[in-house]
Specification:
The structure is a single chain. This protein is α/β, with parallel strands linked by helices and 118 residues long. It has four helices and five strands; from the N terminus they run E-E-H-E-H-E-H-E-H. A five-stranded mixed β-sheet has the order 1-2-3-4-5, with helices on both faces. A hairpin with a 2-residue loop joins strand 1 and strand 2. The chain is globular and about 40 Å long. The chain starts with 6 loop residues before the first strand and ends with a helix.
């Protein structure tokens, strides 16, 4: 089975940065994920939203990379939100307690509303 290398692009909206992810999040995606996070943080947004709607697979190394982003966000006192996770990954984020530290929302509009209300 061929893997789909991670692609990550950044856009800005309503005081937050949105990282659109596509492909697989594994050890090979570390550079792309970190570069996107660095670009997202460069404008000092209040929050960063990770869009997982086009992510096909996340392995344990990918989860560790996401934990690393969470640590960076917490250090910068920046909120990290997610949307687009499949039911499987929502469950995984819940049982690993990642969901305790990042807000999971159903869609981008909900993320904007969540950030604006604070």
């Amino acid at each position: 089975m061929a893997t789909l290398p991670l692609e990550a692009s950044v856009r800005f909206q309503s005081g937050m940065a949105i990282i659109d992810l596509k492909g697989e999040i594994d050890g090979f995606g570390e550079a792309a994920l970190q570069a996107a996070y660095d670009q997202a943080g460069s404008q000092n947004p209040e929050a960063i939203l990770l869009n997982f709607s086009r992510v096909d697979y996340i392995n344990s190394t990918g989860i560790a990379l996401i934990v690393g982003l969470l640590a960076q966000a917490r250090k910068a006192r920046r909120r990290l939100l997610t949307y687009g996770l499949s039911d499987h990954y929502q469950h995984l984020f819940t049982i690993t307690r990642l969901a305790d530290f990042m807000t999971m929302v159903p869609d981008e509009a909900s993320a904007v509303a969540e950030v604006v209300k604070r």
